[in-house]
Specification:
Chain lengths: 114, 115
């Protein structure tokens, strides 16, 4: 069964460092997403991406965050200068098309900022 | 604005009991989707169901059933004859019926099924 894969599964970084979280969406999917879950809290939408541009972003997704799909397969989330409060589980998700199909989530990348 | 409320933060049952997880939502949209996801201790998000706002038929899938009532803005989830493997956090979510598919999640209900 096709799946969304995320790397790394866990990353520990120092405050102020740049972090890149990587995702490989399902191959024929066109819509891509990042969500975040701070430990013990709800899952929150960060950003949606379609046709090589951001479709929508939340207020959490400030200038410190960026996304790109550099090579047609990977979908990356970059945090330029991490803060303690960026510690969370980051989920990548993808789906095949507008208003169709389920949203497939990856297993998540846990980011710990020290 | 859209909002999902899961008032039950934690539920504990004994195996084989039935359990219902409540979900109440708020939206001004006339068309929308509702979802349930399961998050087991391993942390991934497992899709359980998606319902369209114009389809109020209840759904049953094995031991799982969902009761969608537009009149009360509720989309409750029942597990019949619960099993230890059902122990997880369950999230209800809402999205507009547009291309963004931005899911608004509730705060989740932690279900503990004791042997």
């Amino acid at each position: 069964e096709p799946e969304v894969t995320q790397t790394p599964s866990h990353q520990v970084t120092q405050m102020g460092q740049e972090v890149i979280l990587r995702c490989v969406p399902i191959s024929n999917h066109l819509y891509f997403y990042w969500y975040r879950q701070i430990l013990g809290q709800k899952v929150e939408f960060l950003v949606s991406f379609y046709n090589n541009e951001i479709s929508e972003k939340s207020e959490i997704f400030d200038d410190q965050f960026s996304v790109e799909r550099p090579d047609g397969s990977n979908f990356t989330l970059k945090i330029r200068s991490t803060k303690l409060e960026d510690s969370a589980m980051y989920f990548c998700a993808s789906r095949i098309g507008p208003n169709t199909g389920e949203l497939f989530f990856g297993e998540g990348s846990r980011l710990t900022v020290l | 604005a859209q909002k999902v409320t899961q008032a039950q933060t934690e539920i504990s049952v004994v195996e084989k009991e039935d359990v219902t997880l409540d979900c109440v939502y708020e939206t001004r949209d006339t068309t929308y989707y509702l979802f349930w996801y399961k998050q087991p201790p391993s942390g991934e998000l497992v899709f359980l169901i998606r319902r369209n706002s114009f389809d109020e038929q209840n759904e049953i899938s094995g031991r799982y059933s969902w009761n969608f009532q537009k009149s009360t803005s509720s989309f409750n989830f029942t597990i019949t004859a619960s099993q230890v493997v059902d122990s997880a956090v369950y999230f209800c979510a809402l999205s507009r019926m547009d291309s963004s598919y931005k899911l608004i999640f509730g705060s989740g209900t932690r279900l503990l099924v004791r042997p």
